[in-house]
Amino acid sequence: MRWERLFADLEGQAEDEALAERDALAADLRDEHWGSLAWRDLLGETVTLDVVGVGRISGDVVAHNATLVHLRTPALDHVVAVAAISAMVATHGEPRPQGTLTQRLGWAHVCRNAREDADDVRIARLDGGTHDGVVDVVGRDFVRLRSASTSDATVLVPYGAIGVLSIRR
Q1: Which superkingdom is the protein from (predicted)?
Q2: Phi, psi (rounded to 5 degrees) for 35
Q3: Which domain holds residue 6?
Q4: Residue 107 and residue 162 in contact, taking contact as beta carbons nearer than 8 Å
Q5: CB neighbours (10 Å) of residue 145?
């Protein structure tokens, strides 16, 4: 009887140690997985972003890369500078992988598309200021807007100052 208890105790200890090793390995693998992810890898189908100078913007993720996140709402498309995002508040759905073409697109591409479509846009700057108009000129590091109400009034905004470019659809 004494031997049976001794062997049962030894078997129980061995099982406990195996479970502890398994749990430690699982924790290490989980940490390794999380350590390999960037926050953009977690952008799901629907997201709410805190944006410097703008506040919260919610929408469906259309595309994203290292510099821009494109969100769509029923009325607007928002293109958000990654550098202006201070938090991702909520995300729903599976992350969307991006192709190599999307990874290379930047402000110049977005602004040229808005110019070609003659879209009314609103630029929200990082300092909280806004500009409304139609894209007139797309430069290497700036965009120029022409006021929708006055054809003579223009404003030049460096890409580095843009937090969000919103396009009315």
Answers
A1: Bacteria
A2: -65, -20
A3: 1-36
A4: yes
A5: 25
